[in-house]
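Here comes my example:
=====
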Amino acid sequence: MTAAAPRVVIADDQALVRAGFRMILASDGIEVVAEAVDGADAVRAVRRTRPDVVLMDVRMPEVDGLEATRRILTGAADQPRVVILTTFDLDRYVYAALAAGASGFLLKDVSPEQLVAAVRLVRSGDALLAPSITRRLVERFARQETPAATGHRELAALTPREREVLVLVARGHSNAELAERLHLSEATVKTHVGRILGKLGLRDRVQAVIVAYETGLVGPARGDHRRDQLS
């Protein structure tokens, strides 16, 4: 049976951006169930339409995309996947949005093919960002932010192998690279990643990378400061 097309809310204060994204998505059979002109409008639209994916601009008047993401992903039973839209690939707000629960980000000059692929990927439950891209963001901003409520992150619940996998995920390794390095099958790697996400209460690999940095398991720029554990 073919999966139903993703249902999307587009939140951006520029009408031309919204119209362009709507046209691209509609041409591929993806339904845009609502448009929003600011963050507050986005929150209302999400509660009204219960979409699968929200394309969320960071910089909007009144309530910005960061605060809207927090509101959407706090306490909702059926949470959509939020993808941040930004003009700059190292926008300082992107890190905070990812920490708030967003599943990745897109540059606004994304190609039509990339936009469609991104929406479908995120809807399927995966993280949009390659961990290496997330790592660039985290390395630049993690030490400038005050991590929120990371004390509950029970890294002690992870097995030594799971901690090893988490460190390598945070360094930007793909499942295939993890499998080769650890001499495991990709299926086993996916199982380890899934268990890590479950134990730490995380949505996806993006969140795992952030936790690895925020808890000090991996340090900015120079990588894991406990390298001897991996030797």
The chain has a mean pLDDT of 81. The chain is about 45% helix and 10% strand. The beta strands are 7-11, 31-36, 53-57, 81-86, 104-107.
